[in-house]
Amino acid sequence: MKKSYSYRLYGITHSLYTGRARSYLIKSGIPFRELSSGHESFKAEVLPESKLATIPVLVTPEGEVIRDGAAIIEHFESANGREFEPQSAKQKIVSTLFELIGTSGLLRPAMHYRWNYLDENREFLHYHFIHSQPEHPEREAKAQYMMSKMQNAGMLFGVTEETMPAVETLYLQFLAALNQHLTEHPYLLGWKPSIGDFGLIGPMYAHLGRDPAPLRIMQQQAVRVARWVERMNRTDQDAPEFFNPGDDYLGDDSIPETLVTVLKILAEDLMPETRAAAEVLNQWLEENQPEPGTSAQGSLARRIFGMAEFSLHGKSFSAAAQSYRFVILQKMQLQYGQLSLAEQQDVTQLLQRCGLQELLTIRLERELGWSENQDVWL
User: Do the Cβ atoms of 186 and 228 come closer than 8 Å?
Assistant: First the structure.
């Protein structure tokens, strides 16, 4: 008997952002069929509604088209009692913080380990790029063009010959710290995935946990992280290594010290780039004064706002300032504002320990909203 799928997810296997939506659907037990963005129905039926030619895009049984992983997750979370959003103050903020890290803060190592290790990765990537589109005479040329385009995009995220050592040092420190954290629990905040896990799985699956070179590093140096990547793509808890597992987030709004260590390492990169990107975007807003409702998005690594300049480990970085970082940051700041004063104090103290307290105050001069499947300026 042929299985029926209620939802269609348009994406590609090696897509960072598709990985977040796919993992959420799997863990939520939502039946879906995944189709390539090269499928004829994507251009003919989906693109007119999704507005931008980006993935992932979900089509519901009713025919509603939802573009972007965060919007797909919110579609279900708002209807199911927010099953994967912790309700306690610190855990809620940390979960959103890892969503920010996964969707913006790890783009540099994701791009570096994919495109600067082509001796190991080339055949693997070629397979996926050429099979992301249907058979046609220009298929090979198109695949090579897309690979070249994405390789060049890596430089727009700040990966150059000079910065590569710093990118690798920070990533390997992060990988070791996350591996240590996963010694005691199968997920970031305990015994079930959070929104933060789904954010983090994007780069950790599609790029860093599948491409041959970074997968080798992960399997050899951080086996617990490799298991978490597998776990995030299984319907069950998938934690047989833990002989007395729980089934929920840690009690008492607990944030393990091992996770604090992970956040301290990530702060070294996240903070200087966020400060610099905010300056670039605020300057752009002042000069351009976009009308309310104007799209705040562009294609991957498109220079629509400018380049953020910052220093990291004694190296100068230049990376494209993108608005999506501030979509998630704005969400986190809103969550913080809804906490009680005592809860805010607990969260502030935690972020101060991690070197992330400025995330509560770094803001754009204009808020961002969501309209017709796009992030827009309000």
Answer: yes
